[in-house]
Amino acid sequence: MHDEFHVYDPESPSIQHAYRRVLLILSLFIVVLIVRLWYLQIFMGSQLEFYSQNNHLRRIDIIAPRGNIYDRYGSLLAGNSVSYSLYITPPEFRSAETGTVADIINMPVRNIDDKLSSWDGFSYTPVLIDPYLSWEQVSRILAEKPFLPGISVQWQTKRLYAQGTGMSHILGYVREISDRELERMNTPEQEHYVSGDFVGKYGIEKMYDHALRGKDGAIVKLVDATGKEIKTYTYIDPVQGTSLTLTIDAKLQDYTAGLMESYVGCAVAMDPSTGSILAMVSKPSYDINDFSSRLTPDQWNKVLDDPFHPLENKCIQGVFAPGSTYKPVLAIAGLNEHVVTPATTIFDPGYFILGNRVFHDWKKGGHGIVNMHKALVQSCDTYFYRLGTLLGVDTIAKYARLLGFGRATGIDLPSEQAGLVPTSQWKEQTFHEPWYPGDTPPIAIGQGYDLVTPLQLLVAYAAIANGGDIMRPHLLFYPTATTSDYVVSKLGISMKILDVVRQGLLGVVNEPGGTAPGARIKDIEVAGKTGTAQVIKESAFKNVQESKIPEIYRDNAWFVAFAPFAGPRIAVVVLVEHGGHGGFASAPIARNMIDFYLHGDKLP
Length: 604
Fold this sequence. Notes:
By secondary structure, the protein is of the alpha+beta class. It is 33% helix and 20% strand. The protein is built from 21 helices and 21 strands. Strands 2, 3, 4, 5 and 10 form a five-stranded mixed β-sheet that branches. A five-stranded antiparallel β-sheet has the order 12-11-21-20-19, with helices on both faces.
């Protein structure tokens, strides 16, 4: 047997084929390497440099203190206090420690995971986890920090309100911006918001958020590979937001809140010559300082489940039948349209018949012979049933709109309601049926389809008080503003007509038979009008004593007033829901508000 020897031949086809395969593989490798180097150095160079910088530089935003809010005399209504927030830097944080962090800050694990889900996978920017740490939680976090890489605590400011419940519906509150708000608020016309920002959620805080929020600062720190801080690299001072002064009188506000404490309803005081809001209270209320911290589910559910809606500002968001406070609208319309004169009289037997329907007066047996003055003073329903029928629904609507009903007043608060001024066209469009003659008498006395906000009533009575100027009520105080800056429109009604109505309102409080003797003040002439508005059909509790009617079905009690009569400096509206008669429930509250404001420190 002979061994077989193979001679190496570089020209052989097999060797040539092997060379070509090796060269092809090397070429592909070199091409891939070149492409990768180009991608990393040219295409991704700036971004990778950014990530490299962030690997040893940490930027933590410092939320700017919001501007303070003061009352008209300089009393602090909203300021700031020190708070502590928990941040997590995702690349350095061990997800296995999420449970430990959740236990310390008493937050569900899923909430922490949701916040960390916004991380882009590269950034070393800390993510805000909890802006409402207690000092006990801060102490525990600092103690555990060596075992929890990636977590940090930063101080910042949080809102502190001087009157926790008394100013809630005016001031509103501040909380972390939601994802929905981020989408809605980040437009080319508005300033840029980012996740973790704190924004006004309600009231003045929301309306003037752009001025109050200020400009955030930042701390840039140098850290080592483990994330340990070595030194502060850069510090950018935050710029506090603009401070605001409101037209509110804090003492009157606090006093009014006390008067309304045991009621459901609202009370507003305004300067009728300027539209400046002096006090605005809606009950029930809520403590806005609770909303500056993390609310527990029990706290939040308590507010949401309250049947009287404490989050609602009844002064501008509640719409109600105005009852007899609407009668001056009919009086002005009747006189200006020459349907009646001040001397026109009717006989009131205690009811008004229209076709086959009978509309009853509140006073059994009626008021006898009645002219316009007596009809206003004693709130004679029969007189206004008849007057409303003579005017017609669309003429009534014309004058109601002149006085500001059916549209928002324009106050600088969000979510104001417009109410409803019914017309024949509105009924046709809404119910697809015509306006019947029997629809008119109820709206003539502020029942039926009529719906107003308390602030709309106040604006209308302020116009009667000031001689015909429809004012735009406002809360922000402008030192250089003049009265004319807040005049929305002119009534265009003669002073002769307004004086007839004004004298009637004066008699409501000060004449025998007037419906509001409880509003009298010894040395101040108060003019006003009571209103008792049904919340359910009268027939539902016919012949039932009022004390036997469940409270939720009792009438709403209104009183609107201004004083002093000769030169009004304050106008007031009070609504006590289910309070019964306006003269008994609401008039004394209005009297006390007026007395307190005009007498001030003279009161005991």
